[in-house]
Structure formats: structure tokens, C-alpha cells
């Protein structure tokens, strides 16, 4: 079987353009066009049709793409098992995580991984969790790291760290004095209902932190007064330090708050406290080579240092 043929078709489907697919595959556009014409002639029907400027799979094309993904996935599994048996630790590992986590994790994890597995090529993708899940299902990623829950039952997860969601208040907010200690809470606990008139800086709706805080507001029957939606949690923390509004983050970032003077104040929040689970995810039934397990262990070790 010509695996290159399958790879070309998947590139066309992914890019929805012969020009872009050719660039990704390091081919000329005429060469890729001739390939597609020959393939469609061999299967006896078109696999793609043009919809405006987009190249869209036909019904036959969708079936071809589905089976091509399965075949290439099985081939990758076989290759990795053979490599592990040979104990050469050679291969390629495709990792997905959020932009914010990549900033805090990769500078420590990647050098340690490369030192341990110098012959493994790493490919890093930065996406939001729903897109990471889809990339795992399509076989475009081997591992992804994000906060639970997962939407797809085809995925297996391993909890890396249990984290607490923190409410951040500007350093001079008088509600700071309303907080109280509670058993099991890492920070002073503050009743969220007291903040019904406060302004909030929240993440975008497709981010996990935003989804968790939306559920929190729902539990309190509150509609937050949102002054700003922003993707970058670092910016939201800085804005809270400047008194612009209240925000949320995970306890893993508590140390970083000391960079702001005066620093935002941290509080446990929720009926008791609000916990989240940061996890590694991969496809059910997938063979994880030794170096993939090694990467998970390095991430777990890095996060445990921040306990």
C-alpha cells in the first residue's frame, strides 16, 4: 500500500486547498493536481469538489478520508511498537496543549525530555481543549493536556494534578475583609454572592476556565457584570492587580501573582471550594511508546514542584 497517497489526501482535506496542501507537503501545485487526477481516475469517481475557493470532500471522499485516517493510525502504532521493541527510542511525538500552559510548562519539560530522548522529534500544537480533543480523535495528536471534563468517549485521561480555582480581587477591594477561613480551603473563602455588583474580567467562552466559572455563577444564580472577555490569563491577572475588575485563575499561578505589587488577593470560592482536574489525554486503545509515557511523567513532575 502507498501510504504517501493516503497522506496526500488527508493534507488536501485538512487544508481545503491544493495550493496550501502542496506547500505543506513540499510539492508543486501541478504535481499534487496530477496526483489527485490519477487517484480519482483509479477509484472511478471524484473525491473532492470545489465549493467557491474551498476543496470539499464528496461522499466517496469522506469515506476515503475516514479509512485513510484509520490506516495511518494503525501504521503509526505498528511503527512505534517496533521502535520500542528495538529500544532505540526513535520516533515522533505530537503534543497538544493550550497557549497559556505551553508558556508555563514547555521551558522546563522540553529540555529534560530532549536530554532523555534525544532521537525523538517533538511537534507541539497550541489549541483550545475542544480542538485538542478533535485532533486526538483524528489521529493528528498523540497526547494532549487540558482540564477535564472531556466530551469524547473515545479518549482516555490520566489526572496529572488537582487544581483549585481561585477568585482574584483587586488589592484594595473592601470585600477582602469579608473572607473567612474554612476547613479544606487553601485560601480564605469568600461568598461569591457578595460580588454581584462587581465587574469581572473573564476568559473567552471556549476556554475551560470560563466554562468552570460560568457553571459557578449558575450555581449561585448570578449573572456576572463582565467588563472584559480576554483569552490571556496573565493579562486578566495584571488587570485585577491594577484594580480594573475581579478575575479567576488556577492555584498553580499563585506564585506568579507576586510579580504584581501590590498583588491581587486570592480566595477560595464555591459552595465549598472549586476543584479542577488537569489531565493527559490520548485515544482509547492507542499504544503509547515509552517516550510518550516519559513526557507525561515529566509534566507531572513539573506540576508537582509547584504544589
From TrEMBL:
Keyword Transcription regulation applies: yes
Segment forming the signal sequence: none
A cellular component term, taken from the record's GO annotations: cytosol
InterPro entries in the cross-refs: HTH-type_LysR_regulators, LysR_HTH_N, LysR_subst-bd, WH-like_DNA-bd_sf, WH_DNA-bd_sf
Superkingdom of the organism of origin: Bacteria
Listed GO MF terms: DNA binding; DNA-binding transcription factor activity
SUPFAM superfamilies: Periplasmic binding protein-like II, Winged helix' DNA-binding domain
Domain HTH lysR-type: 1-58
Keywords: DNA-binding, Transcription, Transcription regulation
Pfam families the record matches: HTH_1, LysR_substrate
PANTHER family in UniProt: HTH-TYPE TRANSCRIPTIONAL REGULATOR YBHD
Family from the record: Belongs to the LysR transcriptional regulatory family.
Name the record gives this protein: LysR family transcriptional regulator
Organism per entry: Holdemania massiliensis
